[in-house]
UniProtKB/TrEMBL annotation:
Pathway: Carbohydrate acid metabolism. It comes from Mucilaginibacter psychrotolerans. Pfam families: Aldolase (PF01081). The keyword Lyase applies. GO terms for molecular function: lyase activity. Transmembrane segments: none annotated. Belongs to the KHG/KDPG aldolase family. Keywords: Carbohydrate metabolism, Lyase. The keyword tRNA-binding does not apply. This is Bifunctional 4-hydroxy-2-oxoglutarate aldolase/2-dehydro-3-deoxy-phosphogluconate aldolase. Homotrimer.
């Protein structure tokens, strides 16, 4: 099993992909430690600020040392240059909000899982030309589960993960899985600005455990 299959299997098993960015490297690390303690074994740090690369390098060192079995990917990758930089920093997989051929080529070159973001059947088709094993449906709150139900027969066997606005509620999560997704991305509804700014690690731990349980019940 190569790295792509290992990371994909981890996402499918977990059924949820937490994702966030925060300017402070130490807070970012504590968030990841909290997620790890709650049972998370694959997550996405996002390239949403000038501190992202330095933070990622810092976090990756701690992950290697203290968090065995954790796959750490990088999101919001829109160019080949960004992809190369974060691969060099040790990213286990790449996530994009778009379909970009340069990012696809970097991922293929390093045999890394690449999860491109799509919003239309045409974009999904293009992502498939680049051999995307898992496709992010983004923004999920605009598309909704009905979109997945409507298009999944057009793309038999394709794995989808909605990201953007997925709620920690049984009805919301189960609705997504009923529509045919294999996992859900959990961003600000799980790791909110308040959690980050106020260092609400106990709340995050409890919410993460709850979200993981809801996902397992919904799969």
């Amino acid at each position: 099993m190569d790295n792509r299959e290992q990371v994909l299997d981890a996402i499918l098993t977990q059924g949820m992909l937490p994702l966030f960015f925060y300017e402070d490297a130490e807070v970012s690390l504590q968030i990841i430690r909290t997620l790890y303690k709650a049972g998370v074994r694959v997550l996405e740090y996002t390239n949403r600020g000038k501190e992202a690369l330095a933070n990622f390098r810092y976090i990756k060192q701690a992950v290697k040392k203290d968090m065995p079995g954790l796959y750490l990917g990088i999101g919001t990758i829109k160019t080949g240059i960004e992809a190369e930089s974060f691969v060099d920093a040790g990213a286990d997989f790449l996530v994009s909000p778009i379909v970009d051929n340069e990012v696809a080529l970097v991922a293929a070159n390093y045999k890394l899982l690449w999860i491109p973001g799509c919003m239309t059947p045409t974009e999904i088709h293009i992502a498939q030309q680049y051999k995307a094993m898992l496709i992010k449906l983004f923004p999920a709150n605009i598309l909704g589960p009905a979109f997945v139900s409507s298009i999944r027969d057009l793309f038999p066997g394709q794995l989808f993960i909605p990201t953007g606005g997925v709620e920690i509620e049984a009805g919301n999560i189960s609705g997504w899985f009923r529509s045919g997704v294999c996992a859900v991305g959990m961003g600000s509804k799980l790791i909110s600005k308040q959690v980050l700014d106020e260092r609400l690690y106990e709340q995050l731990h409890a919410d993460t455990v709850k979200a993981l349980q809801l996902v397992q019940l919904s799969k």
